[in-house]
Amino acid sequence: FTGPSAVAVLSASAIASLLGMGFYFLQARIYLFKVPLKTIPLSPIYRFGLIVWLTGLATFALANHIDRILIWYLLKDRAQIGYYSIATVLLVSLHGLLTSGWGITILPALSEAQAKYGSRGIAQALNGYCKLLVFIVLPWLMFLGRYADIVVLSLFGRVYSASVHLLRTYIIFDIVAIFFMAGIMGFSLYVIDKEKLLLKLCILSGVLNIILDFLLIPLYGALGAIIATGISVAVYSLLELLFVFKYIPIRYPYRFIGKVFFAGIICLFFLSWIKTQNLWSLFAIGMLYVILLAIAFYFLKILEPQDKEFLIKLNPSFASVLRYF
Measured between alpha carbons, how far is 63 from 166 in angstroms, rounded to an integer? Predict the structure, then answer.
């Protein structure tokens, strides 16, 4: 498929999805057809699945889709939808790139830790995943915020220059959510059978987002939608964190977060002296950023012994590198 055709892009996406489904089916066939089935009560599975489905449905009110609909409904300027979409797509794509590889392991890992070691095990695994989230995502959120203008203008042109401010605003709220360990704590509530609580939090935050959308979009346009969603997600993430503290004996890794955040600021300060005008030079800056971060992490000694042990369990090949941090 060549050329700027939306149909071609959608068709390629559909084909990739079908191929992915086929691959997963081939991998799972041994469990579907060859492993002897055991008779188990299905009502708890149905009940859990229904609550998870309702939680996903409630999340729609907290996601970007409802914002686009309300921008269309409340504003005459349809270009605001495009500005909003560019900002959100870039941020969502960054999260997907950074977390898609290991994010799917969180729920089974937490479940196994609880089954083997109880609350102490799930607390240790949860602490490790929280630090992994901060370690991988936070520095690149800061990098994208610093160079948002280069990314937006290079990819989409000056016609979408209004998206730069939107993207930076969204990143600020996303960093706040990362401080509250957004995307991690919800899994632990599933593991300890608090899925109903998670559903209530989703509904509460979704309603808050819609109310704020109606208040802020008429005043600030697409920026109002981003502020509304940012506040709602921050509230949702904070409530998740507080309830996890209530049920699981986890320590908030404030020192680790502070060191990673400080390292990112120092590295970006040094990089600010280098002029960047396009994506190719930004790619080179990104490579230098990685090197500077590694040096900063080395001197800050951001990892504790239990952190290294956790990461080595995820991937034994990390051992040769982690000994320097």
Answer: 16
Cα angle vertex 131, ends 125, 137, to 5°? Answer: 130
Q: For 57-99, write each residue's pLDDT tens digit.
A: 666 556 678 888 899 999 988 899 999 999 999 998 888 888 8
Helices (H) and strands (E) in the chain, counts: 14, 0
Residues with Cβ within 8 Å of 152's Cβ and at least 6 positions away in sequence, in order, are: 86, 90, 160, 161, 163, 164, 167
Q: What is the pTM of this model?
A: 0.82
In eight-state DSSP terms, residue 33 is I
Task: For Cα atoms 156, 159, 164, give the angle at the middle one, nearest 5 degrees.
Answer: 70
N-terminal to C-terminal alpha carbon distance within the chain: 45
CA–CA distance, 218 with 195 (Å, rounded to integer): 35
Alpha carbons within 13 angstroms on the beta-carbon side of residue 103 total: 15
Check residue 76 and report its DSSP letter.
Answer: S
User: Cα–Cα distance between 46 and 145 in angstroms, integer?
Assistant: 43
Query: Is the CA virtual torsion 185, 191, 192, 198 positive or negative?
Result: positive
